[in-house]
Amino acid sequence: MILLSIKNIVVRYGGVEALKGISLEIEEGSITTLIGSNGAGKSTCLKAVSGITPLSSGEIWFKDKRIDGVKPEKIVKMGVAHIPEGRRLFPHMSVYDNLMTGAFLRRDKPGINRDIEKAYSHFPILRKRKRQYAQSLSGGEQQMVAFGRGLLSNPKLFLFDEPSLGLAPILVNEVADHIKRLADEGYTVILVEQNANLALSLAKRAYVLELGKVTVEGDARELQNNEYVRKAYLGI
Known about the structure:
The chain is an alpha/beta fold. It has a domain at about 1-80 and about 155-165 and about 190-235: Rossmann fold, CATH 3.40.50.300. Helix content is about 40%, strand content about 25%. The protein is built from 10 helices and 10 strands. The chain has a 6-stranded mixed beta sheet, with helices on both faces. Strands 2-1-4-5 form a 4-stranded antiparallel beta sheet, with helices on one face. It is globular. The chain starts with a strand and ends with a helix.
């Protein structure tokens, strides 16, 4: 089943086209990755889905409802969690309070309690750190808080923007494990990731973006063996 359908979307910043008519289909319960160099349009695509960046043309459908033009907070409430590049935590708030910002639009206290426990089950260290300020955490721990905050919004779809950026290699593997676990639990994931090897190893389907256009798409395993992708993005 297709959970998200992006149809020929165009995004302009001033006179510059950041996205030039791209189309994607995201299967429910799967991991889909967008790979490409800086400036290719990957982050812009995620921002378009979450309503942060308006479209110039095209359509975005989520759970059979058209969502382009819908306010970001309503898109969150519909079940889209955007985990931005750089984590974007509130540094002078506690871990617990940062997590709870993800539930700002919710009123179902039993569900919120369930999901805070789910966040702690994913990241047990956060239970120990819950009263600490977010700024006191390591980069890896801050990324855990960003993941957990997304869980607290009760999403169907996660949009991850460069989750491994700036992390030590051992933490990159942990991030990969947590993203895979989310998919195993039934969540749908769109992963934007500079580490193309990591992204393709996690994903079921992949799209290569270059200068705002999709230039290659297909099964992620097949793209790992695609000669152009290997040379351009895998360093082979």
